[in-house]
Amino acid sequence: MPSQEPQPRPRKTLLSCDYPYSFEEFQSQSEAISQVSSPQFFDLSAPPSGPLNPKIDNTARIGKYFSEHYPDGREANQKTVMFIAIHGYASLHYWRLRLHGLVKRIGDERKLFVSQGVLRAVHFAMTKLGADAGFGTGKIVKLAKAFNALYPGV
Questions:
Q1: How is 84-106 classified by DSSP, letter by letter?
Q2: Around Cβ 90, how many Cβ atoms within 10 Å?
Q3: 2: buried, middle or exposed (CB in 10 Å: 19+, 13-18, 0-12)?
Q4: Alpha helices in the chain (DSSP H)
Q5: Side-chain half-sphere CA neighbours of 9 within 13 A
Q6: DSSP β-bridge partners for residue 115
Q7: Burial level of 47, CB count in 10 A (0-12/13-18/19+)?
Q8: Which residue of 9, 21, 78, 87 has the smallest Cβ count within 10 Å?
Q9: End-to-end CA distance of the chain
């Protein structure tokens, strides 16, 4: 009788999300949060201005928004982390994405315009493939361009 080796358990990471998180849900949350909070969370690399860091302020507002809209605290927490990670990707990879015309700075402020293709590509990579799928920036760029071609003007 062959002995069965125990199957490895799926590894949980910071970006593991046990709840479905569609792009449409993500997009409506982005719109709602941008109406109640300045979208400085797009620029996670910005230095703190003043005595309090605006990134921490905005992260707290985002966390509060999610906790008010999801009764399950675990789901709210996981979706908050995923939401911030998706938006943060654009600022962390700004220079590479900028070379391909997928992000640009708006005015003199430290705000970014991020193409919907980038958000869709990063959302897909993080929610469908997982954080450790080895989906590098080059693949995100290609996928973002494909999404921009599929959904022009969105």
A1: HHHHHHHHHTHHHHHHTTSEEEE
A2: 24
A3: exposed
A4: 23-36, 54-69, 73-92, 94-99, 116-124, 137-150
A5: 3
A6: none
A7: exposed
A8: 9
A9: 59
pTM for the whole structure: 0.73
How far apart are alpha carbons 120 and 86 in whole angstroms?
9
What is the C-alpha separation between 42 and 110, in angstroms, rounded?
Answer: 9
- Nearest Cα neighbor of 34 from 83, 68, 82 is 83
Q: 91: Cβ–Cβ under 8 A, 6 or more apart, which residues? A: 42, 43, 44, 45, 112
> How far is it, in rounded angstroms, from Cα 34 to Cα 13?
27
Residue with tokens 């062959």: 2
**Average pLDDT of adjacent 10-residue blocks, the chain of 154 residues:** 53 62 89 66 47 65 87 89 87 88 76 85 84 76 92 72
Tokens of residue 139, six digits: 């693949």
Residue type, 121: A
103 - beta bridge partners? 114
